[in-house]
User: Which sequence fits this backbone?
């Protein structure tokens, strides 16, 4: 069994992106004070997570079209939990008093 050799370039890139996540969350309370804080905050948040996901996905398991899951399995794994948790959050918001009426919308995540 061949062992994959890690590339330190991508490990360092992911580390830098994680640092940007922490930095962005720390500067969030200050984005209303100065325009450059606001611009820097939205610049960081416009690329750091997509870049992290792209780098992580690049090294994910390879895709084998012969073993792909049918649409029904994908539906059960992703859509059904989304609908369940969306309904649960909507119910919780109603019971907690955050919403006056029970509202369940799949296109507006809570």
Assistant:
């Amino acid at each position: 069994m061949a062992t994959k050799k890690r590339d330190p370039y991508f490990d360092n890139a992911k580390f830098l992106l994680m640092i940007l996540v922490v930095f962005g969350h720390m500067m969030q309370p200050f984005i209303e004070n100065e325009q450059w804080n606001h611009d820097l905050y939205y610049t960081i948040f416009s690329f750091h997570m997509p870049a992290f996901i792209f780098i992580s996905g690049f090294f994910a398991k390879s895709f084998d079209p012969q073993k792909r899951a049918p649409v029904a399995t994908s539906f059960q794994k992703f859509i059904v939990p989304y609908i369940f948790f969306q309904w649960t959050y909507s119910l919780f918001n109603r019971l907690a008093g955050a919403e006056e009426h029970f509202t369940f919308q799949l296109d507006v995540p809570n």
Remarks:
- Residues 8-61+71-95 form one domain.
- Residues 93 and 99 are 6 Å apart (CA to CA).
- The chain has three helices and no strands.
- The radius of gyration is 20 Å.
